[in-house]
Specification:
Chain lengths: 98, 372
């Protein structure tokens, strides 16, 4: 299982806790993880990446293993520690005030 | 005994205020969707338990929430489902250069007068969308944005937003919308084609003050019994039309300032209207620090200040364009919300005011439902 940590606003939208566990088919990539996340929680479609272009929303970031993976290609393999469930994949709302 | 339900959208969530018909004691529920901006919440006129809410965030985009039990529980009907029809093209940016149409948020939701599963959405960048499946999927009515003037529309300070949708209760094919800062438009064929209806508006802030489009219309109100009579709060000027927008006359009369955002019509007197004058477009607070609602019983021109119960010193809040509503009890209740987080209520058509709540986040919108 792959563990995904959601930002507060998306937890309330999906009515889940801090972290969700996902079964991902095939290799673990940003795209396959987000596909699985949106399949399990359809209300999150469009909130992390644009529904039409699949581009990451500008103020959303992806972190894992103390690395910023936000600008990695969506089909690049995620770190092995994420793929094997030892480390979470973090979806983060970019820091801003207000 | 009858009751009222006030639907309040704020910068940090939605709140629902309920009271019996006396409108003196209020129960407050919320925040619903805490931390999200809620631009608008509105109920179906034929199924009052069906509510729609526009929940939006600069981070995560647009969610439409739906309730089927009067706001006790909600379900997300869909996220970020607003896609412009065809190749979007461009409108004008602030500096006059072409700028691609980009969806930002839903400003206003207008449920159908006949079907609770049909709802219209006015969005930024300005366009009109419709859902016929209770907000799960949305289709643009592209005739509006396809108006010949569309590429020349330019945003106001709040963005290029479609904020007003009026459905004609006597003619299902007629709809009136308003866009800041393009002006008012009307369709007589259920949204296929649109006409600019801005004759008589004069705006000093645009190169041609009486241009066909380009006016910063802040809000328009209509009384159900007289849908051809329209009342408009423009950026500056309060205006009236007696012919469904074919022509407009200024009715600012003796107002202390004719800048403002809200305008609404009495429930039982179609010639009685309300505005909240704001000092100017560079000073978004009441003149002299006195929060005053002005009422005209003559459809404009002659106005009286309503101050009983409202702060008359040191008050520097604003009242935004969708933040006034009127119930249909007798006497009718008038409600408005401020950027200071107060929701004021008058249970006697404006003669006396009390704060139903005082410390909400800045209020973006107020609607009211009159319940049996």
């Amino acid at each position: 299982m792959i563990h995904v940590v959601l930002p507060q606003h998306l937890r309330t939208l999906a009515r889940v806790g801090r972290e969700v566990a996902l079964q991902v088919e095939g290799s673990a990539t940003q795209r396959s993880v987000l596909d699985a996340l949106e399949a399990q929680y359809p209300m999150l479609r469009g909130t992390i990446r644009d529904s039409a272009t699949q581009q990451r929303r500008p103020l959303v970031r992806f972190f894992a293993c103390e690395q910023d993976l936000s600008n990695e290609p969506p089909d690049a393999p995620l770190p092995d520690a994420v793929a094997t469930g030892r480390e979470p994949f973090l979806i983060v709302g970019a820091m801003a005030g207000g | 005994m009858s009751a009222v339900r006030v639907l309040v959208g704020t910068k940090k969530g939605a709140f629902i205020l309920t009271s019996d018909g006396s409108r003196t004691h209020w129960d407050v529920s919320g925040p619903h969707f805490p931390g999200w901006e809620v631009y608008h919440v509105k109920g179906s006129p034929i199924d009052p338990n069906r509510l729609y809410a526009s929940q939006t965030s600069g981070w995560f985009g647009q969610v439409i929430q739906r309730s089927s039990d009067g706001g006790q529980t909600w379900e997300p009907a869909g996220s970020n489902g607003f896609v412009y029809d065809g190749v979007p093209g461009t409108h004008k940016w602030y500096d006059g250069t072409p700028h691609p149409w980009e969806f930002k948020r839903v400003w206003h939701l207008e449920p159908s007068l006949t079907n609770p599963d049909t709802v219209y959405a006015g969005v930024e960048d300005a366009a009109l969308f419709c859902s016929t499946d209770a907000a799960q999927t949305w289709q643009e009515l592209p005739g509006l944005r396809g108006h010949v003037s569309g590429p020349s529309w330019q945003p106001g300070a709040g963005g290029l937003c479609l904020h007003t949708i009026l459905l004609d209760p006597r003619d299902a094919n007629r709809m009136i919308i308003a866009i800041s800062a393009a002006g008012a438009f009307r369709t007589d064929d259920a949204g296929k084609t649109w006409r600019a209806i801005n004759r008589g508006l004069k705006s000093a802030g645009i190169p041609d003050p009486d241009a066909e489009v380009g006016h910063c219309v802040h809000h328009i109100a209509m009384h159900r019994s007289r849908p051809r009579a329209l009342f408009m709060q423009k950026h500056w000027d309060v205006m009236r039309s007696n012919d469904a927008g074919e022509s407009w006359q200024e009715v600012s009369g003796n107002l202390p300032t004719d800048f403002g955002f809200v305008i609404d019509v009495h429930a039982h007197e179609p010639n009685t209207i309300y505005v909240v004058p704001i000092k100017s477009d560079s000073e978004h607070y009441p003149p002299e620090g006195k929060l005053r609602v002005y009422r005209s019983r003559t459809g404009g021109d002659e106005w009286e200040a309503l101050t009983n119960g409202l702060p008359q010193r040191d008050c520097y809040v604003n009242v935004l364009r969708d933040a006034m509503a009127i119930d249909s009890l007798d006497p009718c209740g008038v409600y408005f919300g401020t950027t200071g987080g107060q929701v004021y209520v008058s249970a006697n058509a404006g003669d006396k005011w009390t704060a139903a709540v005082r410390d909400l986040p800045p209020v973006l919108s107020v609607e009211v439902q009159t319940l049996p």
